[in-house]
Amino acid sequence: MLFRHKKPANTTFASMSEQARLVDKFGRVHDYLRISLVDKCNLRCTYCMPEDIRFLPQSKLMTAKEIGVMAKIFTGLGVNKIRLTGGEPLLRADFREVLQELTPLGAQLGITTNGVKLLEYLDDLRSAGIQTLNISLDSLRPERVLGIARRDVHGVVWQGIERALEAGFRVKLNMVVMQDVNSDEIPDFISLTSREGIHVRLIEFMPFEGNRWHQHKVVAWSDMLRAVQDAGLTFRKMEDLPHETTKSYQVDGFPGTFSVISTVSSPFCGGCNRIRLTAEGKIRNCLFAKSELDLLAALRRGEDITPLILSALALKEKALGGLPGFSEDTIREGKLSPRAMVKIGG
After folding, report:
1. How is the beta sheet containing 235-237 ordered, strand by strand?
2. How many structural domains is the chain composed of?
3. Is the N-terminal amide bond of 87 cis, ω within 30° of 0?
4. 3-state class of 102 per DSSP?
């Protein structure tokens, strides 16, 4: 299903373009673009990738040059932060070319990776000015990583993390917390923040196409904090920045921090400033949106995609892509996006 191409209410495309601001009907300014570079991954994480997944042919994906052209248009509209996601972004054979397209734009660059190929690209990431690495790691136990990711990669990922810390990167460890899967490791992850440069992000298990989500598997924000307290760790709440997706904390005496992404139990949509671009060049105005608009097709036809970007943003829902919340009924009634998490880009 595609967005209908229509003007935002009470404004014109020209006036918004002149303001160089992407503003939705709720007054939220969007200055953060997440670009999925590829829709495939070298892992098969149970919460992310359905077993029967099919990946797009190379011809359907944006080229490095097309990524650069689109990103330049977005930065001209006020985007000042770009995060590269996947699937696994480091699987792009032309990943270095993508960086070369993006670094001249002046936006703050970031990346989310599973870390398997991190050692190969650390120097390139540093040369591109990237200072913080978001690395997905859902267990500190090799056998559990194998069970969750369905690949034996704990050793190489941890080696990449250690090398990144030695190189001076700020490392954010993303842990999707699932009841009776890895929830007992919350204190172990928080203890990692006793090291300089490590920041842990505990993520509530979210429902996506084919990931077998159930409410009883969700460990809520409040329960995560209780697990930290029960481990005898004393922590304080930190001030959250505008547009922040996390609720941040710091254990007394630890240089690192930890935070919770509470999408399920306590959504944070009110200050959303994010737009997403899929690997095949479709704009999504929300992680949970059921509709999207094909920017790449228009670009390849030689059309100006700015009106399409503004049109998509004008239809953004107030919260959760229009969902009332998450439950088994949400899934049973077919209200979720038809895209698997691996094909959205986090």
Report:
1. 235-237, 247-251, 257-261, 198-204, 170-177, 132-136, 108-113, 81-85, 32-36, 274-277, 282-284, 293-294
2. 1
3. yes
4. helix
pTM: 0.88
Tell me the residue range of the domain where 329 lies.
28-302+319-343
User: Does residue 258 belong to any structural domain of this protein?
Assistant: yes
Span between the terminal Cα atoms of the chain, in Å: 21
Q: Three-class SS of residue 307?
A: helix
Residue 311 located in a structural domain = no
The DSSP letter of residue 178 is B
CATH label of the domain that carries residue 73: 3.20.20.70
Whether the CA torsion 324, 327, 333, 335 is positive or negative: it is: positive
Per-residue pLDDT tens digits for 194-246: 999 999 999 999 877 666 778 888 999 999 999 999 999 999 999 887 777 88
Q: State whether residue 36 is helix, strand or coil.
A: strand
- In this structure, is residue 309 part of a structural domain? no
Q: Take residue 37 and report the two structure tokens written for it.
A: 């570079």
How far apart (Å, rounded) are the C-alpha atoms in residues 185 and 105? Answer: 40
| Partners of 35 in the β-ladder | 84, 277
